[in-house]
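dumping this here so i dont lose it
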């Protein structure tokens, strides 16, 4: 489902919180990802410091592009192409979704309302669809 203006505002506000607490957020996220999918740990470098930073900065740019679907699509396709050759498979996007939503619930607590959950689900659907399309046809 496309994101509504209300979805965009909610997702941005919650991301601002995650970004303020980015060290804790990215630690929770990668720890959880590797718990859900231990086999993907080997795809990443031993030291995740740079990766944690790149993920948050990419998401910050994506947040600024949510009102421009064509621009967002370009960004995501480019990121998807960068993932080809890294050993990333389509099924890993489900693992990543699990880690992301667990992190959102854990970090945001009661502020992670059902409508915020749906708004993030719309965004993750767009992100994974575009990235997977680029992975299939890089
Ligand atoms: C919405 C989904 C995803 C986003 C937003 C995302 C974001 C990113 C970003 C921003 C980078 C850094 C690219 C650069 O070097 O500039 C990256 C690298 C990487 N991503 Fe993703 N990614 C996603 C999905 C996945 C999935 C499903 C996997 C599979 C487990 C994955 C595995 C990796 C790996 C292995 C690297 C390279 C890490 C390294 O150099 O140590 N990503 N990702």
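and the seq i came up w/
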């Amino acid at each position: 489902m496309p994101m509504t203006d209300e979805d965009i505002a909610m997702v941005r506000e919650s991301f601002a919180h995650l970004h303020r607490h980015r060290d804790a957020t990215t630690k929770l996220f990668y720890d959880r990802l590797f718990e859900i999918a231990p086999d993907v740990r080997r795809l990443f470098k031993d030291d995740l410091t740079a990766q944690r930073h790149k993920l948050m900065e990419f998401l910050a740019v994506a947040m600024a592009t949510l009102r421009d679907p064509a621009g967002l699509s370009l960004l995501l396709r480019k990121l998807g192409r960068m993932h080809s050759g890294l050993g990333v498979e389509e099924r890993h996007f489900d693992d990543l979704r699990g880690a992301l939503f667990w992190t959102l619930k854990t970090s945001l607590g009661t502020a992670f309302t059902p409508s915020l959950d749906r708004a993030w689900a719309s965004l993750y659907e767009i992100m994974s669809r575009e990235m997977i399309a680029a992975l299939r046809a890089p």
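The mean pLDDT is 96.
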